[in-house]
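Supplementary Note 3. Input sequence used for the single-chain structure prediction.
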Amino acid sequence: MHILTPRPGTGTTTGGENWVGYLTTAQNASLVLSYNLAVGGASIDNSLVQGSTDVDLASQVDIFDETYSSKPASAPWSAENSVFGFWIGINEYVVLCSGETRLKLAPPMFIDQGNATVEQHAAYLAVYNRNLEAMVDGFKTNHTDILDDPTDYGFPDATCINDDGTSCIWWNDYHPSAKYHQLQAEDMKKVLQPLGAW
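The predicted structure, written as discrete structure tokens, is reproduced below.
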């Protein structure tokens, strides 16, 4: 199977480069290889929520496994020098909000194991949801810069939309702009520097 990774700045929903492209081409201190298996409109798993494409996240992980997990010469990576990013889930949210589908909260596999198993998983999910909420609240508290003070970053306000990718935070009413992604990459660089390429 041949995977054609789009050139950075193409195939994005930003009006230009996304954070991966900036980290790969502008923020790097040495050669950085990126492999983009993303497909616009994909859902996490088409068997749960059908995305607008046949390639869902589960398929993308399978493609990675088939193509790159053996660490071929064309993709020399290791766990110590690699970053894997997933931006996924908004398509499920949109479908759920449209009322087109309902997620089954307790999969049959667990229901068939009896009430004790269902209750145990419900308890796990409650802990997970509390921790996730705390993490999101902490992130929101510590990352207010751009949306709270957009003019400090060259944006007219926090809600404007422009498909030029540079003059507004938002490229469309759904995706942040290339300029936002550039700022995100600059912020991420500080966290990624211990890996050595930044």
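The mean pLDDT is 80. DSSP finds seven helices and no strands in the chain.
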